[in-house]
Every structure is written in C-alpha cells, then in structure tokens.
Amino acid sequence: MDLKAETDPAELGFDAGRLARIDRRMARYVDDGLLPGWLTVVTRRGVIAHVSRYGHRDIEAGLPVETDTRWRIFSMTKPVTSVAAMMLVEEGVFDLTDPIHHWLPEFRAPRVYVKGSSLRPVTEPATEPIRVWHLLTHTAGLTYGFHHAHPVDAQYRAAGFEWSTPPGKTLAECSEAWAELPLVFQPGAEWNYSVATDVLGRLVEVASGMPLDEFFAQRIFTPLGMTDTTFHVEGEALESLAALYVPEPGTRRAVRNDAFGSSITQRPACLQGGAGLASTAADYHRFTQFLLRGGELDGVRLLSPRTVRLMTSNHLPDDVDLEAFGRPLFAEIPFDGFGFGLGFSVLRDPVKAKTLSSVGEYAWGGAASTAFWVDPAEELTVLFFTQLLPSSTHPLRQQLRQLVYQALV
Question: Residues 248, 252, 253, 258: is their CA dihedral positive or negative?
C-alpha cells in the first residue's frame, strides 16, 4: 500500500498550513543529526489527511525513508499480543480472572520480594495467583531488567534479561526463567512496566496450541491485510529495513548500532509478544483503523466493539492514573493523567497530562521511538516511525500531539 493523503485536509477539519508544522519541527531533528529519519501518518474518520517523511532509513547507505520502510516496532507489539489474548477470551478459552498457572504451571507458586539484595533476596509467597488481567495491565509484579531500579531488576539482568532475552532460549524457556524470579510486588498491588506481555504471548501459544508467530499470521495479520508485519525480516524485504540508531553520549547525535539492530534479520528463538515485531506504516495503519472501528476492518471482525471498549478503558483501581498507582520508572508514556487498559495507555485527564488530546485516547510506543495513538472522540489515529533507541531520548511524542491537535480546527 502506497500511503498518501486521500483528500484535502480541510475536508477532515485540518488546517493544511498548520499540519505542515509537523514536518518543519520533526525535520529539525534530522537536520541537527538527532534522528536518522522519520515517517508520520495522520488519519481522521478513516481517511488519511497527512503523510510526511524526511531523512534516511539508512544514513550510511544514503537510503531515504520511504512509505514502505520496515521499522522495528518493539513494544508496539504489545497491543497486538493483547488483541490475540482478547480474541481467546471472546472464544471462551480463558477468562480475564483465570489464574495463568492453569496453562503455565511454572507460575503455580510465585514468590514476592520483601527485602534484601539481588544476591540474597528475602521473599514470601504470593497472596493470590497471577491472573490473565494482571498480565494485560502490567500489574502482575513482573519487571524489566533495564529498569535498574530494584534488586529484582538486577536478578533479571543476571539471568540474561535486560534489553532482550538470552540467545537460544525459546519463549517457553524464558517464561519458566521469569517464573523462577521473585515478583516485585504482590499481584494486583501496583503497576510496573514489565515482561508481562511476553508471558501473555506464551499464554496465547499454550491456550491456542499455536506458536505465537503462526497465531499472529493466521488469526490477525492475514485477515487484516497486514502482509509486512513479522518477527524477523529476510530476503528482498531487507532492502526496505531501516537501520537502528542510538544517541552518541554527550552530543546525542544519532549513531548506528548494528550490534543490536541486526537481530531482527534472524528468526528469533524467543517470539517476544512484548517487543519482537517489525512492521510498516501501512500495516500498522490498518491495525489502528481496526481498533478505531471497534474491532472490524473491511468486513473482517476480530473483536466485538464491547471488547475493544473494555480494552481501552482504565483498569487501574478507582480509575486513578499511573502517577498514583505506577512505580516511577520508564514506560512508553507519561504517568500524569494517564491510566492503563488491557494493553494500552488510556488518557483520563488531559489537563493533568498537559496535552491537547481527548479523554479516552489510547496509545502506546516502542523503544526505538515509534508511537501511535487512537482518539475515538475525534475519530483520529496518528502514527510516527523512526529508529532511535531509547524512546526517552527526545520529547517526540509530546511534541507530535501538540502539532497534530493545533492543526485540528
């Protein structure tokens, strides 16, 4: 699919001159050497209002960003895995309140960190089982090794889990390894960004009887026409793959990192439902339209509208935001004013969040600074792709929101 604007932006309520501010502001990041290149897509009422791209998908080779460029989307994999799980919920395979140890026996008796160091932790038994909804909401007590904020994080790193998984370990083996590590808190007690969605992917595998990549391909990608979304990129598709960059210490200029970026060119041993996919703007655009339309696209329905509404409602206790319930660690969105649903952040209070977006906006992003959001109130979807790791390097998402909404007149 060749992404391009499909109508005069004014027909969709946008000021074209104001939309051009997106291009000028984001181009400065490239001109200043801070980003390699980028692509953004703004759609309203199912019609593309604005597509722009700038810079390179591969600086060293002189290859420009194209509309068919393939991007590592990292944690933008999480909403896909969440959709897969909710499809199984709709089919009665499991319920949101079911303990996950019914399918993943390694989690039958989790223990919770109480005190001590990473080398000599003191733990206690979990007071309740980890349930499916704990995985979907990041309230299971699991963590990430890259947080560097808790003794259990250090245990994850010592076990080989920091930015990725140990070489050669399958998803089943990784799930067993995570189950052996302590939880950071009792299930349901707090919110902590974590490998929960990777465990959810393993749950999908066991409950469906299909490897995660096959489930995605057969049950989600093929029905939705997402032909270029995969766990690895090979063959002719490599020509369109963007290189991965990191900020140079001190200058923050984008520097190529093939040591980490090349992993997407090989089939992974561990199919990470939390971070493993590569995709194109056209494919993920179809995914966002499927969500905006309440679980249906082009006559294909994967979820009911009620399920999508449940997924995109705030599931944090008493409707609080992440600032009140989450640990003050890295995540792909701010905490003030944002709650969390079943696989998405959910905007509860635009004033507290200091954003022009609407109540009910749901979103997520990826570690290489990719991002999307869906605003049901304005029937709006926005996509942004680049390849700079980590996503906390520049305030791209906040600025993009401001730039999109100031153009909506």
Answer: positive
What 320-326 contacts at long range (C-beta under 8 Å, 24+ apart), as own/partner pairs, is 321/348, 321/349, 321/352, 322/191, 325/190, 325/191, 326/190, 326/191, 326/192, 326/193
pTM of the complete model: 0.96
Candidates 372, 368, 408; CA nearest to 389 is 368
CA pair distance 21, 9, nearest whole angstrom: 14
Tokens 């181009």 found at = 27
Number of domains in the chain: 2
Cα dihedral: 357, 359, 360, 364 (round 10): 40
| ∠ CA 166-108-322, rounded to 5° | 70
- Give yes or no: residues 54 and 122 share one domain: no
Three state DSSP letters for 175-240: HHHHHHCCECCCCCCCECCCCHHHHHHHHHHHHHCCCHHHHHHHHHHHHHCCCCCECCCCHHHHHH
What b/e string do you get for 220-259 counting C-beta neighbours within 10 Å, with b at 16 or more?
A: bbebbebebbbbbbeeebeebbbbbbbbeeeeeebeeeee
Residues across the chain: 409
Please tell me whether residues 236 and 348 are part of one structural domain.
Answer: yes
CA atoms 212, 267, 75, 402: torsion sign: negative
Q: Is residue 1 part of a domain?
A: no
Strand-pair partners of 78: none
User: What sign results for the dihedral spanned by CA atoms 311, 365, 378, 398?
Assistant: positive
**Position 253 in a domain:** yes
Decide if 383 is inside a domain: yes
pLDDT at 1: 62
- pLDDT confidence of residue 330: 67
| Binned average pLDDT, 10 residues per bin, the chain of 409 residues | 89 97 97 98 97 98 97 98 98 98 98 94 96 98 94 96 93 98 97 97 98 98 98 96 96 94 95 97 98 98 98 96 83 88 97 96 96 98 97 90 97
